[in-house]
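Request: Mind sharing a record?
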Amino acid sequence: MKEAFFYQKLENQKVQCNLCPHNCIIKPGEKGICSVRINLDGTLFSLVYDKIITTHVDPIEKKPLFHVAPGSKSFSIATMGCNLWCKFCQNADISQYPRLSPGEIPGNPLSPEEIVNQAIKTGCRSLAYTYTEPTIYFELMYDTARLAHEAGLLNLLITNGYINAEPLQMIQPYLDAANVDLKAFDEKFYKKVVGGKLSAVLDTLRLLKKLNIFTEITTLLIPSLNDDEIELRELVQFIKDEIGVATPWHISRFFPHYKMTYLPPTPLKTIQRAWEIGLEAGLRYVYTGNIDSDAEENTYCDNCHTLLIQRYGFQISKYEIREGRCPKCGSIIDGVAL
């Protein structure tokens, strides 16, 4: 165990965790909502600092990040746990395990130094904190990100956006890019289906922009729950007005999973219409994913519409960006390490 960052001691050996917007007040011997931070005699500890549940070498496009070192490999890690409980979670077996299975949390001991060494050894360009929610293993992520930065690796935060401002500001010097799940644009959805607050996620997106951390956004469209056209227009307008038209927006197709097996997969026409809404609003880069075929995955120059990156799945078949610019008109293409 490692003593946690971002908490304060209260009376009667209680503590308040200030890592995420839940701001849990935790009695001695108890855990926070994430179930991976425990109060032992008035001191808050992380239970997952040295318990890695998975490592994998992924295409960076799988994160999804389409405008960060395209075509490169990313060393991806995760521990058990999450600070939300999305009823449609595709990784519920590891994200919800600590909450649903009291007792020792599984995982393999792997130090920050070992993680960085494995990333280098496998030829990866970046380290991705992903699969579950990196916020809940912040101490591990922070220590690893510092070493990765020193080694010349990019650090990627793949997150639900449920993190307080101070932790995000602390890791900012070592963070190169993020993908944030903007799961809906409705507070009731976040409260009932996700277990959090939309307003907190929007604040995270605003702060990422202020901190100059390149951000891509992903929205999983779930039939009848967050696919209303009016809501989608509001979501896109928020991205355009407050985060910027250069923010790539990924629209992902829902498939029945976890506690939402009763819903059908998202109709392809719904995905297509959301893609059109994004472009109509003026977003430069709108992509569709989790579709067997006909996905909108290519990157075009916003100025002259030249095809710059041709993708199929997680593979790149054509790459025409030269030193971050369109080779035809010279326009700067938004992103990191292009």
In short: The CA atoms of residues 303 and 331 lie 7 Å apart. The chain has a mean pLDDT of 97. The two ends are 39 Å apart (CA to CA). DSSP finds nine helices and 17 strands in the chain.
